[in-house]
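To: structure desk
From: M.T.
Subject: fold request, one chain
Message: Could you run this one when you get a chance? Sequence is below, nothing fancy, just the single chain.
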Amino acid sequence: MQSTDNQEDHGSGSDGAVTPDEVKKILILDTSAFFLSIPLDGILFTVPRVEKELKDLRGKARFAVLLDGGMEIRPPLQRSLKTAQGAADKIGDLRVLSETDTDLIALALELGGTLVTDDFAVQNTALALNIPVQSIIQREASPRIWQLRCTGCGKYYDQIPTKAGDCPICGSALKRKNK
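Reply: Done. Structure tokens follow.
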């Protein structure tokens, strides 16, 4: 006869199953998550480029503490990166996202995690991909679709019409406008 006194409790459900409240959330951390000492409860991930963006001592120290606590640094897979870039291009955020930003979005997509960031363009692209976002101190972004408008002739474009990023009609700069 086995004793039940030494068996581990693997959840509060009556059948011993883990309840949703007990599952740790996967959090993908943007650079801004290292600037403040906010509580981060979950399984933590970031991308290699984030560490390179940290310049101040406080951010680097916070990064080191979280790394010692089990945070994992992981680059995204190429197919996830292409999906993230495609979504950002479709809604007009690609030209304002850095490589670090698209890496973070791609990793969140891969891992099915929540993206922790205050960057509105990152949040907007994540929302377009149905990736949950958690802002740090800013309000969360509302989903937007952008188009480009020439500052000279006023023509609208859904995508950048030239490699130089200027208007092919008059040569003026293009600015993002809410569609």
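Reply (cont.): The CA atoms of residues 147 and 155 lie 10 Å apart. Let me know if you need anything else for the meeting.
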